[in-house]
Specification:
The N and C termini lie far apart (73 Å). This protein has 665 residues and is of the alpha+beta class. The longest helix has 20 residues, at 154-173. The chain has four domains: 3-180, no CATH class; 200-300; 330-574, P-loop containing nucleotide triphosphate hydrolases (Rossmann fold); 586-645, Arc Repressor Mutant, subunit A (Orthogonal Bundle), CATH 1.10.10.
């Protein structure tokens, strides 16, 4: 048996999944190697003919994590800053460059010096590391991974790596550069979270007992706020670092949530809690004498089971007699509810954003809605727009719509205290959006156009991830009493339901209380239909129609919405498929007329067009009716005239000239 095969078997016996790597390489060449799960019987096929061996890290290997020390300073300082472990490996030239741990739930994180490259990396799920007896591309042999990795909390390991990175940066560049990178000072990172005289382990046990008694997050019952409060209790009440707080939430609190939060979601809650203003001193729960009860923070009147008698999972009961009844509030009555999410979808270039500018104009001026009075005073609007330029598109459109631009605020991104900036995203920056809305007491509406541009690294087609992002956004809308209007595109396909054509996960439409479609009228390409797709909070108020007209603004022609009077009852599905919906359409009527008009044989095209015009049929309706009936235009071949012909008809019955003559393009 080869040394490589024997080593792969030994690693597998310890619960660590091996992955084959080509000789002289550091990475696998197998597609989807992250999903590779080799058994002992599979190993000879992959490791009997030389090459290298790597270990798949993280969850597949029982939480195995590699802390990769990428510079000499990190190797030298690791013993001072990282938890002790019995498993240290590397290669001949750098024998202690990898320290191994079991840290369930740990996430991959890279620490890079902008001036000198990578310093340290936490390598976990989704990664692999080459181990002995492999050979480095330089020919340097890797050492075997032996000994027992220490078992450490994921949050503690991350905090230690934060401190190690800060120490390396300070050693290289001094305090100024480390502070500019926004890293905690070494002393702060390593400072105990308890005052002198208190046992740190006892504080952790008290925090765990506290978490076991607080309300868990339950889908559909405002779960975002209980989780945020639990995070606040840890980072402020017990004065724990964000990483240690996250680890406790992940281990003790999250398993009780239904469904559990993702790592990203839970970390965002902790980050928001760390940034939040608190009305009690830091450490007040840590320093309290005796058992500490969950802080209710003026929670709704939920009947709670006594913690002394409850199991780890407890029902949350709310007596409906205690619920204060309220009426639905509206921005645009029957169409855009206040304190809720609304979704508008349509193909690119069909007027969604121009229509949105018209809505913004009516909110900022108090002008009437197309179908009903506007009972609100003028209000402010927060605008997130990723596709159109503010200077040459959005601002001129608002001017053309008659908006009060002094009440419109564009949220363009996030600026760091160190001077950097990045794009806004709903995963990480909900706190910034909340702060923005709070700064505008008269804020009525937040527009997100398109919502897919603000999802960060989230998979917009993943129901769980989208739901996790939209739940706190929905909570923000309710708590701040603002409408949030999300704009999206339509997917390709032939779905029978209009709702299933909305781009991305169905969770977008599920979270919205109202969904609307903007679609071109197939009988009139200059006309747009604004049609209801979903309405949870009001009776069907029908659709509306509008056109994009030119208005002169500062010497240039800018598109603006001009609404038509009256209700439109066309179904969204019918508009997408090209059928009219309820009752016969112009195309239906035209097709019926054409069938009768041409019953006695082909007709000259010029005469047929005049006859259609005389019967008030549009060119578009005639074209679509012809297509529906299979009518084609053909040249008669004798006098050079074009005629409309049904399939199977001859151009000249008495001569037998067939329809396979010249066909109009």
């Amino acid at each position: 048996m080869s040394d490589l095969l024997q080593a792969a078997g030994a690693y597998l016996a310890r619960g660590w999944l091996p992955v084959p790597i080509p000789a002289g390489s550091k990475g696998p060449n197998l597609p989807n190697w992250q999903r590779l799960r080799l058994s002992a019987d599979d190993l000879p096929l992959h490791f009997s003919h030389g090459g290298n061996v790597g270990l798949i890290l993280g969850e597949p290997s029982g939480g195995l994590v590699d802390v990769d020390l990428d510079c000499d300073e990190a190797v030298a300082l690791a013993g001072e800053y990282l938890p002790a472990t019995g498993a240290i490996s590397g290669r001949g030239g750098r024998p202690a460059s990898h320290r191994w741990y079991i840290a369930e739930g740990a996430a991959t994180k890279k620490y890079s010096d902008p001036q000198a490259g990578m310093v340290v990396e936490i390598r976990s799920t989704g990664c692999q590391t080459v181990v002995g007896p492999s050979l480095h591309p330089t020919g340097d042999p890797y050492l075997m991974l032996e000994g027992e990795p220490a078992i450490v909390p994921a949050g503690l390991l991350r905090a230690c790596c934060d401190a190690l990175f800060a120490a390396v940066i300070r050693q290289r560049h001094g305090d100024a550069v480390a502070d500019a990178l926004g890293r905690p000072s070494t002393s702060l990172a390593l400072a105990p979270c308890v005052p002198s005289g208190q046992d740190e382990s006892e504080v952790m046990r008290r925090a765990e007992r506290y978490l076991a008694t607080v309300d868990a997050a339950i889908d559909g019952q405002g779960g975002s706020m209980p989780t945020f409060r639990a995070a606040c209790a840890l980072v402020n009440g017990f004065a724990l670092s964000p990483d240690v707080a996250y680890d406790l939430l992940a281990r003790v609190y999250n398993p009780r949530c239904a469904p559990p939060w993702s790592e990203k979601e839970l970390r965002h809650k902790v980050e928001d809690a760390a940034k939040a203003a608190h009305d009690k001193p830091r450490g007040h729960l840590r320093d309290a004498e005796g058992p500490v009860a969950p802080e209710l923070f003026n929670l709704s009147p939920t009947r709670r089971i006594d913690a002394a008698h409850g199991a780890s999972n407890r029902p949350m009961l709310l007596k409906l007699g205690d619920v204060e009844r309220t009426a639905v509030k509206w921005i645009w009555p029957g169409r855009i509810p206040r304190g809720k999410l609304t979704l508008v979808a349509g193909e690119p270039g069909q007027g969604k954003s121009t229509m949105t500018c018209d809505i913004v104009a009516r909110i900022t001026t108090g002008n009437a809605w197309p179908d009903t009075p506007n009972l609100d005073l003028p209000g402010d609007v927060v605008l997130l727009s990723a596709e159109d330029d503010l200077a040459d598109t959005i601002a001129p459109r608002l001017d053309a719509a008659g908006a009060d631009s002094e009440r419109v605020f564009a949220l363009q991104g996030i600026e760091f205290a160190t001077g950097g900036k990045r794009c806004f995203n709903l995963e990480a920056d909900l706190g910034a959006l909340n702060e923005t809305v709070l700064s505008l007491p008269d804020c009525r509406l937040v527009v997100i156009d398109p919502v897919s541009a603000y999802c960060g690294k989230l998979d917009s087609h993943n129901n769980t991830e989208v739901r996790g992002m939209l739940m706190p956004l929905s909570d923000l809308a309710a708590e701040r009493n603002v409408a949030i209007l999300m704009v999206t595109h339509l997917s390709k396909g032939e779905a029978s339901k209009a709702l299933h054509r909305f781009m991305g996960s169905i969770a977008f439409a599920a979270a919205a209380r109202a969904c609307w479609l903007v679609e071109v009228d197939k009988d009139d390409s200059g006309r747009r239909l604004f049609l209801p797709v979903k309405q949870n909070l009001a009776k069907n108020v029908g659709g509306l129609a509008f056109r994009i007209v030119d208005r002169m603004v500062a010497g240039q022609s800018i598109g603006a919405v001009e609404w038509e009077p009256g209700r439109i009852d066309t179904l969204a599905e019918a508009a997408l498929s090209g059928d009219a919906g309820r009752g016969p359409s112009a195309v239906d009527d035209c097709a019926e007329w054409l069938s009768e008009y041409m019953a006695d044989g082909p007709k000259l095209a010029s005469e047929a067009e005049e006859a259609a015009k005389a019967n008030s049929f549009s060119v578009a309706a005639v074209r679509r009716a012809k297509k529906r009936l299979g009518i084609v235009s053909r040249c008669d071949g004798f006098q050079g005239q074009w005629r409309w012909v049904f399939p199977g008809q001859t151009l000249w019955p008495d001569t037998g000239v067939a329809t396979e003559a010249l066909v109009a393009p």
